[in-house]
Amino acid sequence: MRYFSGIHVPDAFIAFQSRQKRIGIFNALEYGRALKESSLDQVLPLEPLRERAKQRWRTPNPSIADIILVAADQLKIKQCFVADDFPAALFTKLKKRGLRIDTANAPILPSREIKSASEAQAIRVANEISAAGIRAAERLLAESRIKGRHLIHRGRTLTSEMLRMAIEIACIEAGGVSIDTIAAGGNHACDPHHRGSGPIRPHELIIIDVFPKANKSSYYGDMTRTFLKGRANDAQRSIVEAVASAQRKALRLITSGANGRDVHRACDEEFRRRGYETKSTPRGSVGFFHGTGHGLGLAIHELPRISGMVDSKLKAGAVVTVEPGLYYPGIGGCRIEDVVQVTSGRPRMLSSYPYRWEIR
After folding, report:
1. Global pTM?
2. Are strands 100-103 and 79-82 parallel, antiparallel or unpaired?
3. Quick one: which of 214, 209, 219, 208 has its CA closest to 129?
4. Which domain holds residue 42?
5. Is the dihedral of CA 345, 349, 354, 356 positive or negative?
6. How many domains does the chain have?
7. pLDDT digits over 97-138, tens only?
């Protein structure tokens, strides 16, 4: 809806396209702002349609479906297609009331996958916010001293919660909001979506994954770096190098026309070549058990996908993350993530942060 209308509205509203015109229906709270700020071709007030729905359906409290049907009649719309995640109850009610409605079985807004120059710049700025958060975490790790099994920062034991707070404050100061930030060390980092909790231990791998939404544009950034405070052992150095190598390999393969499945398989093959097996165990999966990347924009996950599960031809202009990882309890987890825009040649980097990871 944000993409379609060009305006951020916190509450749900009705919007649709008819005869190449993009139309939105807004209540009194948002109607004036939508007239001034939206990119819609036509903005309609909600209240007159609600009054007509009251009369037509003889109810003091018309539903969203009632209002949609009145609007459809007014605009002579008899058939519509909706996204496959359209609300099921609303779909059923509209269909029962006589509107010919079906799912499109394809993206409703296919143009959203291809980012304009201004959208790519918005994502680049959002990744600068990501970098500010990662920098804050690296600073805390660098300032901490090792005391036995703990890291001490200004007299306090350093924890995942402290890292997340520092990251999220830095993102706010840089112009964005980071929610569900990941700052996970040790075995916590072996579960890719574990946010991390409790003390951060010295000599253990720490995954920092920061995906803020920029306040100004509403576009997301998404970057991950892996750190270690202390001295890494050979096994830790080996998986970090393997992940870095897999990411470099993926970046070389990303170009318009490439299949995302082939990019993912290249990462998988690099890991297997180095002896890293992916398998399921009674306690969970180990190795490389998530996709290599996903589209990024007004949502943190959108089309296309770079995964072994789907065929997805990459198109020039698409923006994707590239984030291979390895996860082995006892050794730790490592993920390195950057954001690129697909071109007809080498991908255009939309994120930037150093890859140094061992902090003495």
Report:
1. 0.92
2. parallel
3. 214
4. 2-108
5. negative
6. 2
7. 889 999 998 888 999 999 999 999 999 999 999 999 999 999
